[in-house]
Amino acid sequence: MSVHEHPEAVLRPELSFDRTVSRRLVHRFGLEEVFLTDFQSLEKDGPFLAAARLPRAHAYYGDHLGHPRAHDPLAVFECVRQALLCATHLHHDAPTGTKAITAECRLEITDPAALLLRAEDERGYDLELRGRVDLAKHHEGVLSRVVHAVEVQLCGAKVGTVTVDTALRPPAVYEKIRLKDRSTTPPMSDQLRHREGPSDLPAHLAGRRDADNVVLTRAEPGEGTLRALLRIPVDHTGMFDHPQDHLPGPVMMEAARQAGLLLLTEEFGRTPAKTQLVSLTAGYRRFAELDSPITVHAELAPGADPREGTYELTVEFRQEDAAVARMELRFAATERQSGKAHSGEVPRAL
Description:
Layout: H1 7-11, E1 36-41, E2 48-53, H2 73-90, E3 99-109, E4 126-139, E5 142-154, E6 157-169, H3 171-178, E7 216-221, E8 225-230, H4 249-268, E9 275-284, E10 295-300, E11 310-319, E12 322-333
Antiparallel strand pairs: 1-2, 2-4, 3-6, 3-9, 4-5, 5-6, 7-8, 8-10, 9-12, 10-11, 11-12
Domain A-factor biosynthesis hotdog: 25-165, 207-331
Protein name: Putative gamma-butyrolactone biosynthesis protein
Pfam families: AfsA
């Protein structure tokens, strides 16, 4: 008796959600920070599959005001990010020690409702990631740049897509790049003596419950704008899982989200608990240093209309009078608000 497998079963092997992959494959130190559970390379430098399990309880990703009603979009991004780090090794054969430098990335939540937690579904934390390689460039036979596009599914429903443009460099080359805009060796985060104190911003205005997760301070709202100082908690294991010589991009993405939520509260009286990030595009121009202040500048896109239920804005990060990164964000109202938020009389948060 012979058994003939369906072609798709061969092309798409069953993914496992039973245990996490080695933390070394996703460049994590803490086991509790590893969300990736499986990786399957279907064709070298071609399509691949991955599985991840969103954390049920997490001091950082589970702290947003929508929890436990809905999953955090940035937790989804982190799962994809880990899958792509794993891909550099298992899919592209990058040597151990290779540095992955993000140039651009985009998170697009096409169906926010798909992130709602379904208590009756035991798969409600399981992400299936379907990736492809849109661009691959090699230098002397070694992959030097790759653009990945990943479709994200949760419980069989498409959540959205993530695209990441990554440069891959050997350690020696990376060290030269890091010294390009510096006269001294950059300090590691675990070597910094200064530890950030608490923010003066109430946590709920940043979409958080725990003040330790607020990364903005000294916020100054303007007419359709917001300026704040970036708070860098180098001892926060959710943001700095391991020593870093620069500010990680995901921390800047969180800062951009918090700036956006605060600006929407100031301008339209939006409640952060009823406002969800649905799109974020980030472009990184240079490394964000840990030993110099970084300011965050948010500005509403022209023509923002609260009656549409969606809001677009830009956020720029500046350090020593130079632009470090620029991000474009789109938020959507998860529930309509009544009263002052739509009457023209907007309550001020700060």
